[in-house]
Write a structure and sequence with these properties.
- There is one protein chain.
- The protein is α+β, with helices and mostly antiparallel strands.
- It has helices spanning 52-60, 63-68, 73-81, and strands at 6-8, 15-17, 21-26, 33-35, 44-49.
- 28% of the residues are buried.
Length: 86
């Protein structure tokens, strides 16, 4: 049996297995964040559920801006919406 790490969604604050979430990262000292589809990049990470509801909630609450200090959050929310397969 393998260990699956749990991560918290920054929008709904629920704990879910990391593979079920979308990850965003920001490098130290940078105000530009990016989508990390393969979950392998280094940097401070923030996770959002892979649902339209949580992405909209994160956008409304400005979660990425607060957690990562990024200036390109609107672009990231649009990219995340493209990653949903519901």
């Amino acid at each position: 049996m393998t260990h699956i790490p749990l991560r918290m969604c920054i929008a709904c604050r629920s704990m879910k297995p990391a593979p079920e979430l979308i990850r965003f990262i920001a490098e130290k000292g940078s105000d530009i964040a990016e989508l990390d589809l393969h979950k392998k990049k280094f940097g401070r990470g923030a996770y959002v559920c892979a649902s339209m509801e949580c992405i909209k909630k994160a956008e409304k609450k400005r979660c990425l801006e607060r957690h990562l200090g990024c200036t390109n959050a609107k672009e990231l929310y649009r990219q995340a919406e493209g990653c949903i397969f519901e």
